[in-house]
């Protein structure tokens, strides 16, 4: 176990960006940079013990600064969408930056993922990233201190432990937006990967990808992923939900949510045998199949094409601040928010 630090690059304004790499005793390696507390590389073995980087992204800081698809980033203070870019707390309306279609607030207008975070090595297998979100930025109330710790175990588990506390009553929803391709970042689409999601329900959306408020059974729909299904099997189905989003881009309601770690998803690449299991203490997981990726120049100058990576964004459901029937994510001033997500890599 060891953590090493390198300079990753320099921003236009001269700020240096560092890269922290954690290596475990099995040779698995995970790198995170201080720009956006962004995961940049995850090297894991396949069934023949060949290592590949399974994270879709960029080799240099310019790629991350110019990206439009949130590759690998930490998202907050509110990950995913808030409808109408507004919400109320105790009768006070908060108006947010409407950065999507002029109507929706998506990923808090990129606040966390474009910030330069402080970092500290917390052990020989862990690094913590720290950021102070100022009151009122993009309309969110409260000065909010945030900490995300990345921990790599000898069982090839990457644990993300999130912590936040604000000085005002506010909404908090933190996630990571990694795109995975278990064949390796340059191995083509993820349509042959098999996915299962531990969810009997999902949250259907409107044409702006805002949940309608319904918590709908997956039974008899293309969102029934309780048993493994090839991602490509139904992704171009003509149903209204798929046509709104151009493929899977939906929040699933994890069965048995009780704020303890629950199995959320399991993805396998039959070609390499690599497998990813996701566990979380959060109630939801956004499965996004990279439908809007458009060929940006990624690692080794290879294009990041449509559906060349999938995201499993553990989270509170989208638009929770406007949906009183969803599990709530409003926290009192001084109340500590914590959650944990585990990405466990295996080989079959
Ligand atoms: C964000 C969301 C994804 C998806 C894309 C669409 O990245 O997290 O779920 O909706 O936008 O571009």
Give a quick precis of the structure.
This protein is mainly beta.
Name its key features:
globular; 3% helix; single chain; binds alpha-D-galactopyranose; five-stranded antiparallel sheet; 42% strand; 31 strands; Beta-galactosidase, Chain A, domain 5; 2 helices; mainly beta; 348 residues; nine-stranded antiparallel sheet
Would you mind describing this structure in some detail?
The protein is mainly beta and 348 residues long. It has one domain (2-79, 109-195, 266-347): Beta-galactosidase, Chain A, domain 5. The protein contains 2 helices and 31 strands. It has helices spanning 61-66, 240-245; strands spanning 2-10, 16-23, 29-33, 38-45, 51-53, 55-56, 74-75, 81-82, 86-89, 92-95, 105-106, 118-123, 126-133, 144-152, 157-166, 170-171, 175-176, 179-180, 194-197, 201-203, 216-217, 229-230, 249-253, 262-268, 274-280, 284-288, 296-297, 303-304, 311-315, 330-331, 337-347. The strands form 9 sheets. The protein has a 9-stranded antiparallel sheet with strand order 12-13-14-15-31-25-24-19-22, with no helix packed on it. A hairpin with a 2-residue loop joins strand 12 (118-123) and strand 13 (126-133). The longest helix has 6 residues, at 61-66. The two termini are 24 Å apart. The model has no long low-confidence stretch (mean pLDDT 98). The structure holds alpha-D-galactopyranose (GLA). Alpha-D-galactopyranose binds at residues 70, 80, 177, 209, 249, 286, 288, 292, 313.
